[in-house]
Amino acid sequence: MEYFVSETSVVRTIWGKADTVLFIFAGAAAEFALNKAVDWLYFTGRLPADPLARLFSTVEYARQIVFAERTGAERAIDTIAAIHGAVEAKRGMAIPAWAYRDVLFLLIDYSIRAFEVLERPLTDPEKEEVFDVFARVGRRMGIPELPATHAAWLPVRQQHLAADLEHSRFTTDLYEQYRKHLGPLRYWLLLHAQCLVVPTLVRDLLHLGRRSWLQPVLPLYRRTQHLALGRRIRTALLPAEYQAKILALDAAPVLPRRG
């Protein structure tokens, strides 16, 4: 059986662990709120009504693609493209190509950043693997003007950050919704997780500060995250309606034995 992502790829390691996916989620939540095309997410009404569910669905789709066999992954990508096409038809205008690239780019960037915050620095070949997986997703969706390599992507990513992000009324509204849905403690944790994982420009636009109180506890967390205590702490910090979904991210899909 041929998989969309190699069974030995570091991308499966990154997306097969709940903690890393949660940090990717935190980064995506920050950058979605700043993107100049966030009005598209408001158009359907789903994002302001339940921002956690809407953002988690994006992350969940990405994870399904990472672990799917090639045909299933391509079918999921085609479904994503069709959903966006339906929204475009309903609104009577096209989502800008740069907005599609922005979402793809943040999945690349936060996959790398989240893993490096929680685990270790990735090698250049491993970063290339991450880029290649999501670049193939983008090409399947028909997104134009994608860089050819991770090295070529780096300056383009910086250009997109500088051109496509701003603090708007949508940003303020989304963060109010985050606070409402998470509660004070979880919202505080979200902000500090974002401070650790987002690029400097995003941190500055959101006024997250330069220091996260989570930084000093990360070494202890790394030692306890696989223990029952670490799992219980994480469960207690998650909204009840998302606990099962997020904890299930630790259980990577069972792959058939070769031979």
Record the SSE blueprint.
Blueprint: H1 10-15, H2 18-34, H3 39-43, H4 46-49, H5 51-67, H6 70-91, H7 97-118, H8 124-141, H9 150-164, H10 169-182, H11 184-197, H12 200-205, H13 218-224, H14 228-237, H15 240-247
Helix pairs in contact: 2-5, 2-7, 2-11, 5-6, 7-8, 7-9, 10-11
Brief characterization of the structure:
With 259 residues, the protein is mainly α. The protein contains 15 helices and no strands.
Number of helices: 15
Number of domains: 1
Helicity, as a percent range = over 70%
- The quaternary state of the protein chains shown equals single chain
Rg for CA atoms: 18 Å
Main sheet overview:
none
N→C terminal distance: 11 Å
What does this structure look like?
With 259 residues, this protein is mostly helical. The protein has one domain. It has 15 helices and no strands. The chain has helices spanning 10-15, 18-34, 39-43, 46-49, 51-67, 70-91, 97-118, 124-141, 150-164, 169-182, 184-197, 200-205, 218-224, 228-237, 240-247. Residues 253-259 have low confidence and may be disordered.
